[in-house]
């Protein structure tokens, strides 16, 4: 595991700017950075969840700026005083977002990444900023017909069909173009199917009927947990349930992201970050059902029409991250759910999910 060093600019701890720090993955990343001893500046405009409280809000090495990443002047001002930039801010949501906000996912996220790169290029020229670590997505492999998806395949397979996947691919082009023209160092990371606590109902989520339960998140793990906890029987799932996902713990992803940021071997390279274990939606539903209802109650399924962009297989190659960074996502799905299910039950009581 790489450790932070003193910044040559100040003789103090290395400082990292995390955009989208109040978000789902962003929260795990900030925790991991603080655990490793970095000084962290977060920027978020609370556009997704509204104001949220985090366990680290009062940490002496954390400073949260409520601001908009599209404010290039503000971003430049922050980045000239930082050693690293983890560019995680984006308009993002569950699969319903891909349909409801097809244009906004493209236009808003293009503005965010352009502003981020503009500011980072200026800050790097000023001398302190070392590198940008960009959060891409497994959705860059949306149109593949071969598995597992390996680093480099995103430029060989047909482009993503969803505007979200297409824009995430554009993020990777931004990263490489900023290096090609301005020599702004980069690392690209692609998280796969983050599972964890801290994901609440987004302000812009559209409620969708799923049997007798209304859902607003359209992320398969919290959606299934809510339906099972509410006693839905038969349990409604999208499509046949044969969709394969690699559900990866948020804490593991954060370790991989920070390792990619800090490890010299990651310079100007790209990495899939994921567990090696895949599950179908039916297998996921079975595990959740047993954890909530015990071993004896039989599970029956009701199949609903799938969303257009519900990719049937999302299977990553994970060897490169293991061999280059020494990173492996080791948390088992059953263990993730032992943490996630009680959290969702409490969030349901609190009305935040």
Automatic annotation (TrEMBL):
Pfam families: Epimerase
InterPro entries to which the protein is assigned, alphabetical: Epimerase_deHydtase (IPR001509), NAD(P)-bd_dom_sf (IPR036291)
Domain NAD-dependent epimerase/dehydratase: 16-273
Similarity annotation: Belongs to the NAD(P)-dependent epimerase/dehydratase family.
Protein name: NAD(P)-dependent oxidoreductase
Native organism taxonomy: Bacteria, Bacillati, Actinomycetota, Actinomycetes, Nakamurellales
């Amino acid at each position: 595991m790489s450790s932070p060093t003193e910044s040559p600019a100040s003789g103090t701890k290395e400082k990292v700017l995390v955009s989208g720090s109040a978000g789902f993955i962003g929260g795990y990343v900030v925790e991991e950075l603080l655990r490793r001893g970095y000084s962290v500046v977060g920027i978020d405009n609370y556009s997704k969840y509204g104001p949220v409280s985090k366990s680290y809000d009062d940490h002496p090495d954390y400073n949260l700026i409520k601001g908009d990443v599209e404010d290039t002047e503000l971003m430049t001002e922050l980045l000239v005083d930082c050693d690293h930039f983890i560019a995680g801010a984006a308009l993002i949501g569950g699969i319903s977002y891909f349909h409801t906000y097809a244009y906004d996912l493209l236009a808003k996220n293009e503005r965010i990444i352009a502003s981020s790169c503009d500011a980072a290029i200026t800050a790097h020229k000023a001398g302190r900023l070392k590198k940008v670590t960009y959060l891409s997505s497994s959705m860059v492999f949306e149109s593949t017909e071969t598995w597992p998806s390996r680093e480099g395949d995103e430029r060989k397979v047909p482009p993503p069909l969803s505007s979200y996947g297409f824009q995430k691919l554009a993020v990777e082009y931004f990263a490489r173009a900023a290096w090609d023209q301005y020599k702004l160092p980069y690392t690209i990371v692609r998280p796969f199917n983050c599972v964890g606590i801290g994901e609440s109902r987004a302000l812009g989520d559209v409620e969708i009927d799923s049997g007798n339960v209304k859902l607003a998140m359209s992320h398969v793990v919290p959606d299934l947990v809510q339906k099972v906890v509410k006693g839905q029987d038969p349990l409604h799932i999208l499509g046949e349930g044969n969709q394969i996902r690699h559900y990866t713990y948020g804490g593991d992803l954060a370790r991989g992201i920070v390792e990619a940021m800090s490890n010299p071997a990651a310079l100007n390279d790209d990495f899939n970050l994921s567990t090696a274990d895949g599950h179908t939606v039916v297998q996921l539903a079975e595990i959740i059902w047993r954890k909530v209802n015990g071993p004896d109650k039989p599970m029956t399924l009701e199949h609903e029409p799938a969303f257009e962009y519900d990719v049937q297989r999302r299977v990553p190659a994970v060897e490169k991250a293991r061999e280059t960074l020494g990173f492996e996502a080791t948390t088992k799905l059953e263990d993730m759910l032992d943490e996630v299910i009680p959290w969702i039950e409490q969030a349901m009581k609190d009305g935040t999910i």
